[in-house]
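Schema walk-through. Below, the input block comes first and the output block second. Nothing else is stored per chain. Lengths vary across the set, and this one has 324 residues.
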Amino acid sequence: MKRFVLAGWLIAGLALSAFAAPQGGRSARGTKTPEPEILREIGPEEIQPGMRVKIRLRYGRPLIGSILRVTDKMVQLDLSTEPGGLPGKLKFRRTDIAQVHEVKPQTDQEKQRVRDQHRQKLLAIKSEVKARLEKRKAAEREEEESDESAQQAYREALDVVVAKEEEERMRAVVEEFPPDQWGEARFRQIRENWILRDLMPTAKESRFVSVFEEWRQARDTVAVLDARQEEKNGETLLLRFPPSQGWGQSRLTEIAEKEAKGEPVTEKEAGFKESYEAWSKAVLRRAAEQPPQPAPEEKPPVEEKPAEGEPEETKPPAEDEKAD
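--- output ---
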């Protein structure tokens, strides 16, 4: 959703810069837009649908376009076929009109040429928006990868000795802003909304921005402390339920069958069932830490020789070699 909003902002900004050249002035490329031939000056009450007019309002610059709709109070002007104009429609009150001139109508060829120019500009805008979004996404990916690398290096170099008061303060900050809801992406979004879109952050968002660096350090520290505590708890479980003594999936199945039959289970069996998930993680972690065992070398098969003194097997003579 965020990227769609960003694309909308880019398209709007590029469209205004590409199309908003003053009518009758110079375009963005410096070429002067030709003024249409003025036929006569008319009053606002003489405006009729289909007329091509040059209207000067009480505010802003003059507008050139074709009248689409006229009511007692409103006038709708089509600007889409005018060179140097915005490809759209404009509605304003009759009372806002200061002066009106009827101008020479456009030919169908002139209208089509302007539509083609607008279409080419829009294609160029879409291409530029796509390039900018790709560049923006690449920068975001690079920033996220850099953050992940920095966090990993920080975790590896972190000293596990943290004062109790300091740990409590860090955990309070992390609990206030849970990492699954707050993070680098949320920080960038708040900053962009504030700076680019003039959207004021809420009180909690303002506090998050102010403690962002402290929060990031606390998040990484708490994650390391929790991971190491989980590892210690897992080693304790492996000592209490050694896999070599039959504790494992099959033992868990036996305990479940006992409970299904209504048979009593021991306190140790109940504890194993309750802590099985943490116990299995500890088993996997220990297996991953052990170096892989080399595969045994395959020996070539040994050719069996006949035992000494044993007569070799003799073949019977062929029929044609038998004595007469």
